[in-house]
Amino acid sequence: MAAQRTARRKRKEQSEYYFDYSLLFIVLFLLGFGLVMIYSASSYTAGQAYNDEAFYLKKQLIASVIGLVAMIVVANIPYHVWERFATLAYVGSMALIPLVLTPLGVESHGARRWIEIPGIGLNLQPAEVAKLGMILFLATMVCKIGKGVRTMKGFLFMVALPMPIVLEIYLITKNLSSAIIILGISVLMVFVASPDYRKFVIMALGVLALAALVVYLVMSGSELFAFRGRRIRGWLDPESDPEYTTFQTLQALYAIGSGGVWGKGLGQSMQKLSFLPEAQNDMIFSIICEELGLFGAVAIILMFILLLWRMMIIANNATDLFGAMLVVGVMGHIAIQSILNIAVVTNSIPNTGISLPFISYGGSSVMFLLIEIGLVLSVAKRIQLREL
């Protein structure tokens, strides 16, 4: 009898499933920290523009609550359900992007990248939908092609799949950063699915050579790249045009430099007082550096590293290839966007509008990031615990 009870208990333990509370805690921490920093960075400008210091905070809070509800729902749905909607997500993303040119389109800061959602006072950015749609679609295609992705034909096919959406985003919405992120997510997913790394080394060398050629042409005085060329020149020499092209970059660097090791203290930033454009959005990392110093900046970077590490563990232990590829796609999205945002703020790469995941102001971004986290949690919940 004792042996039977032991066997039943062992079978029960083996049938228990995993839930990554560490991942959930990190996401909730970043989300809460982001709300605090959004209020700190935007309270002055919001009070001046809308007579409500919490204007941006309230909008971000609404989007965060909607995103958390969606995350919980998605986390409790078996992730294989979404495989049926992969093609619809891809086609839907392509159809959604041109809507910014219709009367539903919303223009902000000279860019037309959002669609108004009537009745709830929120705007939807199709590029954020496309990121999630691309992750779902490519994860499904990797599973369908199987070992075919290792061949040159399969590799080229997988790399070509995101190009229509990438070109749409760049040509219609003029959003180079989102186009780069979607292309980066796609290349990373194909890279993980294909064990032949030589193709990716050749591709990386080609991209580096092309980037070097562009920089050379710009510095030679070529007007071929116009606006992008001015940003590249500003990146190489931040003081070349301090009143226009490099103004935001210089103000961000002033904020980072003035924060020192420990920072001026939460809420004590000077650059957010109308000196630094988009302080609550693309440049919020510079406000973190100014108010919380090097210590706060390193702490946030470590939180992102922990988040990616937890995702890597889930991907390595996923029950099937589809689940693993979903997690790899989400991991790539967050990693690429975080690295590019911090690189832009610190002037390590030319300035382009990229938000910091979970922390920067942006309703569409936080909602779809939380939905992606819901997918990761759904994959994690299907990992079966076994005694070692």
Describe what you observe in this structure.
This protein is mainly alpha-helical. It has two domains: 27-76 and 237-388, no CATH class; 86-196, no CATH class. Helix content is 66%, strand content 4%. It has helices at residues 2-14, 21-50, 55-75, 86-96, 126-145, 152-160, 163-173, 176-193, 198-219, 226-236, 247-259, 284-317, 321-345, 363-381; strands at residues 105-108, 111-117, 122-124. A three-stranded antiparallel beta sheet has the order 1-2-3. Helix 2 (21-50) packs antiparallel against helix 12 (284-317) and helix 8 (176-193) crosses helix 13.
How many helices? The count is 14
Which structural category fits the helices and strands? Answer: mainly alpha
**Beta strands, count:** 3
Alpha-carbon distance between the two ends: 24 Å
Unreliable sequence segments: 9-15
Q: Could you give the topology of this structure?
A:
Elements: H1 2-14, H2 21-50, H3 55-75, H4 86-96, E1 105-108, E2 111-117, E3 122-124, H5 126-145, H6 152-160, H7 163-173, H8 176-193, H9 198-219, H10 226-236, H11 247-259, H12 284-317, H13 321-345, H14 363-381
Antiparallel strand pairs: 1-2, 2-3
Helix pairs in contact: 2-3, 2-12, 3-14, 4-5, 5-8, 5-13, 7-8, 8-13, 9-10, 11-12, 12-13, 13-14
Question: What attributes characterize this protein structure?
Answer:
388 residues; mainly alpha; three-stranded antiparallel β-sheet; 3 strands; 66% helix; globular
